[in-house]
TrEMBL record:
<protein>
    <submittedName>
        <fullName>GroES-like superfamily</fullName>
    </submittedName>
</protein>
<dbReference type="InterPro" id="IPR047109">
    <property type="entry name" value="CAD-like"/>
</dbReference>
<comment type="subunit">
    <text>Homodimer.</text>
</comment>
<dbReference type="Pfam" id="PF00107">
    <property type="entry name" value="ADH_zinc_N"/>
</dbReference>
<dbReference type="GO" id="GO:0009809">
    <property type="term" value="P:lignin biosynthetic process"/>
</dbReference>
<dbReference type="InterPro" id="IPR013149">
    <property type="entry name" value="ADH-like_C"/>
</dbReference>
<keyword id="KW-0479">Metal-binding</keyword>
<keyword id="KW-0862">Zinc</keyword>
<dbReference type="GO" id="GO:0008270">
    <property type="term" value="F:zinc ion binding"/>
</dbReference>
<dbReference type="Pfam" id="PF08240">
    <property type="entry name" value="ADH_N"/>
</dbReference>
<dbReference type="InterPro" id="IPR013154">
    <property type="entry name" value="ADH-like_N"/>
</dbReference>
<comment type="similarity">
    <text>Belongs to the zinc-containing alcohol dehydrogenase family.</text>
</comment>
<feature type="domain" description="Enoyl reductase (ER)">
    <location>
        <begin position="17"/>
        <end position="347"/>
    </location>
</feature>
<dbReference type="InterPro" id="IPR002328">
    <property type="entry name" value="ADH_Zn_CS"/>
</dbReference>
<keyword id="KW-0560">Oxidoreductase</keyword>
<dbReference type="GO" id="GO:0016616">
    <property type="term" value="F:oxidoreductase activity, acting on the CH-OH group of donors, NAD or NADP as acceptor"/>
</dbReference>
<dbReference type="InterPro" id="IPR020843">
    <property type="entry name" value="ER"/>
</dbReference>
Length: 376
């Protein structure tokens, strides 16, 4: 008898982070679910951290991936927002309690019982969740997003994590209230390059902050930044002291915060988005003496994420991507660890995830989702 819940993807099985072909099972499509045939999945830096257990809470085997765009192939009887054939997205979260203060404020991502798309357990604790480096996923319709017309499936996929990660703090910390304010973007990678684009669309004057001048021309000429500041140029750093209203810090490696604080005006705000493996030093004197603020932010709720997708479609904002095959994922991870990507890898899942292409395939039974045979 054919297992109608079978699914296939690439999983990491230990802290080496090496991904290999992997058979598993998805749950049945329930009355509140949407089954999605995955077309594309972005490769987030969090995927790299998780498969290598950099943060200490990885549970193997892990199929990563939370920047998913695909086609709805089945919807439950209670689902009215989506229909079969719709182009849909799945981001970082796939569940929450739906009753706490955060959920009631459309901030499901801050729910104490939030359920992440991978490296987590289902809301009822009975199964393990696996991500988008796979052929199919089944998700509660409340955590499925509509992909607007005009937003490409491949270069639009990274917006489901990187896009909302920079959009949400811009809204919350008041960066969008007055055009012409000065925003510094520290780090020009997967998050940073989208921060430049969204910041410009909000009318901000954007300065990219980087350790070297390597990306200066593309930051200004291609991404639209107004200026470029190299932190190792002491004269330029001195000239930039007290010139920025906001800084979005996207760097996930260890780095000094003091030079960034000096760039802020009085009442300036630095928002940390990167997740270094080790704690950063937080100098207090410049915060107190300049009435400056340090904050953090992580993705956004479902309502705000849908708003972000509509905003990006309107302003024609997408990620700059390198499209790869699933078989290239391990070399892509090696390059990502060296920041050698412009600026986001995206896996062409539908055209390259081929079970028969690998000699060794691992198998696990996981009660979560449905496999499908339809072609798109």
């Amino acid at each position: 008898m054919v297992d109608q819940n079978k699914a296939f993807g690439w999983a990491a099985n230990d802290e080496s982070g090496v991904l290999s072909p992997f058979h598993f099972s998805r749950r049945e499509n329930g009355e509140n679910d949407v089954t999605v045939k995955i077309l594309f999945c972005g490769v987030c830096h969090s995927d790299l951290h998780t498969i290598k257990n950099h943060w200490g809470f990885s549970r193997y085997p892990i199929i990563p991936g939370h920047e998913i765009v695909g086609i709805a192939t089945k919807v439950g009887k209670n689902v009215t927002k989506f229909k079969e054939g719709d182009r849909v997205g799945v981001g970082v979260i796939i569940g929450s309690c739906q009753s706490c203060e955060s959920c009631n404020q459309d901030l499901e991502n801050y729910c104490p019982k939030v359920v992440f798309t991978y490296n987590s357990r289902s809301s009822d604790g009975t199964s393990r969740n696996q991500g988008g480096y796979s052929d199919v996923i089944v998700v509660d319709h409340r955590f499925v997003l509509s992909i607007p017309d005009g937003l490409p499936s491949d270069s639009g996929a990274p917006l489901l994590c990187a896009g909302i990660t920079v959009y949400s703090p811009m809204k919350y910390y008041g960066m969008t209230k007055e055009s012409g304010k000065r925003l510094g973007v520290n780090g020009l990678g997967g998050l940073g390059h989208i921060a430049v684009k969204i910041g410009k669309a909000f009318g901000l004057r954007v300065t990219v902050i980087s350790r070297s001048s390597e990306k200066e021309r593309e930051a200004i000429d291609r991404l639209g930044a107004d200026s470029f500041l190299v932190t190792t140029d002491s004269q330029k750093m001195k000239e930039a002291v007290g010139t920025m209203d906001f800084i979005i810090d996207t760097v996930s490696a260890e780095h000094a915060l003091l030079p960034l604080f000096s760039l802020l005006k009085v009442n300036g705000k630095l928002v940390a988005l990167g997740l270094p493996e080790k704690p950063l030093d937080l100098p207090i004197f410049p915060l107190v003496l300049g009435r400056k603020m340090v904050g953090g932010s992580q993705i956004g709720g479902m309502k705000e994420t849908q708003e972000m997708l509509e905003f990006c479609a309107k302003h024609k904002i997408v990620s700059d991507i390198e499209l790869i095959k699933m078989s290239d994922i391990n070399s892509a991870m090696d390059r990502l660890a060296k920041s050698d990507v412009r600026y986001r890898f995206v896996i062409d899942v539908a055209n390259s995830l081929l079970p028969e292409s690998s000699a060794e395939i691992l198998t696990e039974q996981v009660d979560h989702g449905v496999s499908i045979t339809s072609r798109f």
